[in-house]
Automatic annotation (TrEMBL):
Signal peptide (from-to): none
A GO cellular-component term linked to this record: cytosol
EC number(s) recorded for this UniProt protein: 1.6.2.4
Nucleotide-binding as UniProt keyword: no
Annotated Pfam families: FAD_binding_1 (PF00667), Flavodoxin_1 (PF00258), NAD_binding_1 (PF00175), p450 (PF00067)
Reactions this protein catalyses: 2 oxidized [cytochrome P450] + NADPH = 2 reduced [cytochrome P450] + NADP(+) + H(+)
Location of the FAD-binding FR-type domain: 855-1104
Record's protein name: NADPH--hemoprotein reductase
Biological source species: Monoraphidium neglectum
InterPro entries: CysJ-like_FAD-binding (IPR003097), Cyt_P450 (IPR001128), Cyt_P450_CS (IPR017972), Cyt_P450_sf (IPR036396), FAD-bd_FR_type (IPR017927), Flavdoxin-like (IPR001094), Flavodoxin/NO_synth (IPR008254), Flavoprot_Pyr_Nucl_cyt_Rdtase (IPR001709)
Enzymatic class: oxidoreductase
GO molecular function: flavin adenine dinucleotide binding; FMN binding; heme binding; iron ion binding; monooxygenase activity; NADPH-hemoprotein reductase activity; oxidoreductase activity, acting on paired donors, with incorporation or reduction of molecular oxygen
Length: 1216
């Protein structure tokens, strides 16, 4: 029986071990090459060498394996051997396909596209062909990046050329097998001048790998928004220059490419380097271009298309003894040296702090790469900056030239773009940041020009080993797969149909929903690749779109333009551009009637390139981020807005801080505090402020107010009608629908009582269910609505500018930064772990407890820990008894607060992601917002944050401890966070994938559904720069857990017990999950400690003071725990001679033999008279499922009847 492997095979022996009925059995095999059907015999030296190469990984082969040791079967023998793609037409001896490069186009890639795939060629030749070109035209052998000694030099000459989007998709999926190499003839020519920069180097180049982890940060969406003032300023300069040219009426402006080049060069250099070259102004006045531009252009011209006769002089040029090639190389070296001098002068000026703070050069000087932890080498600065000029300004200027040409030739498209600009901008004379995203047709105009005339006409990948492409074509090691973007962008099946001839300009192709409206399936996602694809996609494509849209939004409302009569553009590089341009494009330009005025260029329009990350910090060597400077106050209307929270676990407090940042950015003066603190002044006799507004964010606990809202609840309940007239408020409730009976009870109470007291709601009551996905998204929508409603209610507007943006930026919840002696100051103590008793002693010395032992966390020694369920039940429930410290008290029905820690596997995964060992020291400075990130101090009533108790206290903590304690690593990141990661992602393909995950459908399927953690997500998108402080502040705090105490102090006041079910499951991603708290509790052996305290939460869940009062107790599963405490208390009372009233216990579980916990104890209580009835329901025993509520219904009528007869039901019955 023979099979053909679909994967690559690496044979290391002549035996395989297939599994037969679960047992491994070795069988001999015969191995054949799929490409030739030749058997490889170990005794044959050549075959043995081939097998050894495959075994070591030096060479990959596609093999057939005969697992019986027999020859190939007839069926397999008749299969056609693997073939390379078919040759393109017109192949001739010696010159191969050289004729295909000739035609009506100047650029040979355009001619290849037309001659192979034009005029029905796609149907005749297919989307992928093989071409053989002379080496002096296309390729040079001896590639420096590939493995030494190519086994088939023909592979270097014969290129696989494609315009098939499916092939591109496969190249993306197999990027490691098809790396981009920069090693062929034309590439080496470019590299002579440009060096090995981010665009002009191979993926395996260490310099590329280093730069790819740094430079994309300069082009993420947040950075580009910060560049907008500089981009707009350069547009203003351009408009003023053309105003002068067209001052006397219609003017013929020549050299459009020169104008576009001046604009794009000025814009990108100003934004990312901090240098204003003023090339537009120089062009307007006829001055020379800036020195940087002059040296760059000369180096490009001398390298690519030198006029040696002019350079050398006629005498030297015609001298047969002069080596013209050597002279050419001398000129290239001289031109490059001059350009290097200019660039390294810019580097030195940046290093001295004279310019470019936080810009691209600053990044190269100071930042380590996120990919390999290395700095960019100093000698690699020149290639990276030259690459910005090659790929960052020439490509955009070329596309803008083509866009103006196509709009001039298609006046209907120009008018549609102008109409959209006027509609979006309204009365505004200039576009704002928010306008740019709404200019869909303008963007379509630019994209369509880039489709028809891609500035990078081709891109390629090389096969790292012999392999198969599209499941049918053999690709040899070192062979190039070149994507002809000209042909790809003109495929009839992707771009034709109702949109017309693919060669015709029609921006409607790129309008949202265009294909769906035309009744067509969506376009292939890889049918458009002008910026490259995969990890090598252009990092500046988003910058180019913003730059182009801003330019067109300024130009079109001000000027009408047309081409000279009879002008037809020809794609050419004769104007010394890297990209094909519309050759010698000129435009007749006139100013439109009623055109908006253009603001004067602002000398102060400095791009805030110094913004380091989304949080504004600066990368350090250990991957951390320093804290940003304090945000400046936004100049605004200063309307007061009080943000109040009621919170036990801290979620509402987190939301309150987020809301405060948002409304602060809208110009409000914000104060934040708990609900109880809001009425603390004046002994609670006052009221809420009548100036400004009040936002209330609160949860509920068993229908009761949170601990820090109890006094507020009492005050509000006693408020007289009309006493809160003039107060304007909004309430946001946080609850869990699993507690259906009390879901949102307290938020509803607050909203109702405020209205009854005369307050006016800015918004209707809004709430969120934490048991459902989208919690943070719902909060974001509500907070946005609140800001809009408050602005409208008070008739004010949000401020604008950098100060407003800085004020609105979220402030870190936890102030943590790398520790060193200079920033450490006086360290109060070192936090090493949750069981560090000495640390806890030191910490308590800094916090006043006012004699209340319960007010602080304590190490609680484990006295007993036993499993209550059988080992084969598949579940685990532990009974744990703990020793309480002297002075800590509790009563039956109270809760034990336990501080959890993240499970070790999550912590290790986070450390690996961050590139940390775990022992790196960090400095945690206690502040008012971070203390609740731990449960430390949260047992106080109301529970203040640790930072409130110890403001400014400096604590040394190690990386592992911070990840164990400060953040909930198991949390699924919100859609908003995923979207923010996409904005900050420097790698365009990864950013696009993150944006898909941030969509509603993508988030449900790819994040919330599989319960993906942030660490798992970032591990898949490694280009997103992440530090420990950023990770800690991106996720919610690791909240304390509360467990009902299952004992009574009447039995032993120094001993309490809890009953804890282990939360353990495997997520859809395959990650084993253990609850942070339950996992910790189950793993602590006797003698070790848990960190916790007794919490007396606001509840009426207590035994009646009169022990004769009849009670009903219902406790399914581990809900039995507090009932055990009540029964232990009744047992102690009974033992002391007290008379007990009747008590019924209803308990439900799955099976008597599986999870009937505390069975002996319960039956003992029944026998002793502690309870008068025990009703147990088993949902899995018997022919039908029986639940605890069924037992309640069956017993209720008889028992209630007896209570009614005794006249006690209405006054005494108590249910818990």
């Amino acid at each position: 029986m023979c099979r053909c492997t679909s994967a690559l095979v690496f044979p290391s022996s002549r035996e395989v071990s297939p599994s037969v009925n679960g047992h491994a059995k070795k069988q001999p095999v015969n191995i054949f090459l799929q490409s030739s059907k030749e058997e490889l015999r170990p005794e044959d030296p050549a075959a043995a060498q081939t097998l050894e190469a495959a075994s070591s990984g030096a060479q990959k082969l596609v093999l057939l394996v005969a697992t019986t040791g027999a020859p190939l079967s007839d069926a397999v023998s008749k299969l056609p051997p693997l073939q390379q793609p078919p040759y393109a037409p017109w192949q001739l001896p010696v010159i191969g396909h050289a004729l295909l490069t000739r035609g009506k186009n100047e650029h040979f890639v355009h001619n290849l596209a037309h001659n192979i795939w034009g005029d029905g060629g796609l149907a005749r030749n297919g989307g992928t062909v093989r071409v053989s070109l002379p080496t002096d035209l296309d390729f040079e052998t001896g590639a420096p990046e590939g493995p030494e000694g190519w086994d088939d030099k023909a592979a270097l000459v014969e290129t696989i050329m494609t315009c098939d989007p499916d092939v591109i998709a496969e190249l993306i999926a197999r990027e490691a097998e098809f790396p981009k190499c920069w090693n062929r003839g034309p590439q080496n020519v470019v590299a002579r001048m440009a060096g090995n920069g981010l665009f002009t180097s191979g993926t395996r180049d260490p310099d590329w790998q280093t730069a790819h982890g740094i430079l994309p940060r300069a082009f993420n969406a947040l950075k580009i928004r910060s560049y907008y003032p500089a981009i707009l300023d350069k547009c203003r300069v351009y408009m003023h220059a053309w105003d002068k040219r067209a001052a006397g009426g219609e003017a013929l402006i020549g050299g459009i490419h020169e104008w576009m080049s001046a604009f794009t060069a000025d814009a990108i250099v100003k934004c990312i380097i901090g240098l204003d070259m003023h090339n537009i102004e120089r062009l307007q006045t006829g001055e020379e271009a800036h020195l940087f531009m002059r040296t760059y252009r000369r180096a490009n011209r001398v390298n690519m298309r030198p006029d040696l006769k002019a350079e050398l002089g006629a005498a030297k040029y015609y001298n047969p003894l002069v080596d013209k090639k050597a002279e050419h190389m001398r000129l290239v070296a001289e031109a490059r040296r001059n350009t290097e001098e200019v660039i390294f002068d810019l580097v030195e000026r940046t290093r001295r702090g004279e310019m470019g703070e936080g810009g691209m050069i600053h990044m190269m000087l100071h930042d380590k790469s996120a990919t390999n932890g290395e700095y960019i080498r100093y000698r690699n600065f020149y290639p990276q900056l030259i690459n910005v000029m090659v790929a960052g300004h020439e490509t955009t200027s070329a596309t803008l030239s083509w866009t103006l040409y196509f709009l001039a030739k298609n006046p209907t498209c120009m008018e549609k773009a102008l109409a959209e600009i006027r509609d979006v901008l309204g009365d505004a004379a200039e576009p704002t940041v928010d306008h740019i995203a709404k200019l869909h047709y303008v963007e379509a105009c630019f994209r369509e020009a880039l489709r028809i005339q891609p500035v990078a006409v081709a891109t390629a990948r090389d096969a790292a080993a012999d392999t198969v492409l599209q499941g049918k074509w053999l690709v040899r090691r070192g062979q190039r797969v070149a994507v002809n973007l000209v042909a790809l962008h003109r495929r009839e099946d992707q771009w034709g149909g109702p949109f017309g001839d693919p060669l015709e300009y029609n921006p409607d192709r790129f309008m949202p929903g265009a294909y769906e409206k035309a009744g067509l399936p969506p376009r292939h996602p890889q049918a458009y690749a002008p910026w490259g694809f995969g990890v090598r996609a252009c990092i500046g494509q988003l910058f180019a779109l913003w730059e182009a849209k801003t330019f067109l939004a300024m130009l079109l409302p001000r000027f009408h333009f047309r081409t000279p009569v009879g002008y037809v553009a020809v794609a050419s590089q004769r104007e010394l551009s890297i990209s094909p341009l519309p050759y010698q494009l000129s435009l007749h330009v006139r100013r439109r009637e009623g055109a908006p005025a253009t603001s004067l260029p602002s000398d102060e329009a400095q791009p805030p390139a110094a913004a380091r990350t989304a949080q504004g910090g600066q990368k350090q060597a250990n991957g951390a981020t320093t804290a940003p400077a304090a945000a400046p106050a936004a100049a605004g209307h200063s309307t007061p807005l009080q943000v109040l929270f009621g919170s036990n676990s801290g979620m509402c407090e987190d939301f309150a801080q987020q809301l405060a940042a948002k409304v602060r950015g809208a110009g409000f003066t914000v104060t934040v505090g708990s609900l109880d603190l809001a009425i603390a002044g004046g002994g609670g006799s006052g009221g809420l402020p009548t100036t400004g507004a009040v936002a209330v964010l609160t949860s509920t606990y068993n229908g009761m107010p949170p601990d820090n809202a109890v006094a507020f609840s009492k005050w509000l309940g006693a408020a007289a009608p009309g006493s809160q007239a003039g107060v304007r408020y909004a309430v946001f409730g946080v609850g869990n629908s699993q507690w259906a009976a009390t879901f949102q009870a307290f938020p509803k109470r607050v909203d109702g009582l405020l209205t009854a007291a005369g307050a006016a709601a800015l918004l209707p009551l809004s709430s969120v269910d934490v048991d459902q996905a989208g919690v943070t998204d719902a909060f974001d929508e509500w907070s946005d609505s609140l800001v809009a409603a408050a602005l409208s209610a008070f008739g004010v507007a949000s401020p604008t500018g950098a100060a407003a943006a800085a004020a609105a930026a979220p402030r870190p919840r936890v102030d943590i930064r790398p520790f060193d002696e200079s920033n450490g100051g006086e360290i109060a103590f070192e936090l090493t772990g949750p069981g560090d008793l000495d640390v806890l002693t030191k910490m308590r010395g800094h916090i006043p407890t006012n004699g209340n032992t319960n007010s602080f966390l304590h190490p609680l020694k484990v006295l007993e820990s036993r499993q209550l369920l059988p080992a084969d039940s598949g579940r685990a429930t532990a009974h744990v008894e703990l020793e309480l410290p002297e002075g800590m008290t509790y009563s039956a029905g109270d809760h034990l607060e336990v501080v959890p820690v993240n499970c070790p596997s999550l912590v290790e995964a986070a450390l690996q992601l961050l590139g940390l060992r775990g022992d790196e020291p960090f400095l945690w400075t206690a502040g008012s917002k971070d203390g609740a990130a731990r449960g430390i101090g949260s047992g106080l009533k109301p529970p203040p944050a640790l930072g409130d108790l110890m403001p400014g206290l400096k604590i040394k903590v190690h990386a592992r401890g911070a990840l164990q304690w400060f953040v909930d690593l198991s949390t699924v990141p919100s859609r908003k966070l995923v979207a923010q990661l996409a904005e900050a992602c420097p790698c365009p393909p990864e950013a696009a994938a993150l944006r898909r995950l941030a969509s509603e459908e993508g988030y449900s399927a790819g994040v919330s559904g599989p319960k993906l953690t942030l660490v798992e997500l970032l591990s898949r998108f490694r280009s997103v720069p992440t530090s420990l402080p950023e990770l800690v502040n991106a996720l919610p705090r690791l909240a304390p857990r509360y467990y009902s105490i299952s004992s009574s102090p009447r039995a032993d006041p120094r001993r309490c017990s809890i009953t804890v079910g282990l939360v353990a499951f495997t997520t859809p991603t395959g990650r084993p999950h253990r609850g942070a708290s339950s996992g910790l509790i189950h793993s602590q052996p006797v003698g070790r400690h848990l960190l916790g305290t007794v919490r007396c939460l606001q509840s009426t869940f207590k035994l009646p003071k009169d022990p004769t009062t009849p009670i009903i107790m219902i406790g399914p599963g581990t809900g039995l725990a507090p009932m055990c405490g009540f029964m232990q208390e009744r047992a102690a009372l009974l033992q002391g001679g007290a008379q007990l009233g009747p008590a019924l216990l209803f308990f439900g579980c799955r099976s008597a033999g599986e999870d009937y916990i505390y069975r002996d104890t319960l039956e003992g209580h029944l026998a002793a008279g502690v309870i008068s009835g025990l009703h147990v329901a088993f949902s899995r025993d018997g022919p039908s499922k029986v639940y605890v509520q069924v037992g309640c219904e069956a017993s209720a009528q008889n028992w209630m009847g007896s209570l009614l007869e005794a006249g006690r039901y209405l006054e005494d019955v108590w249910a818990g």
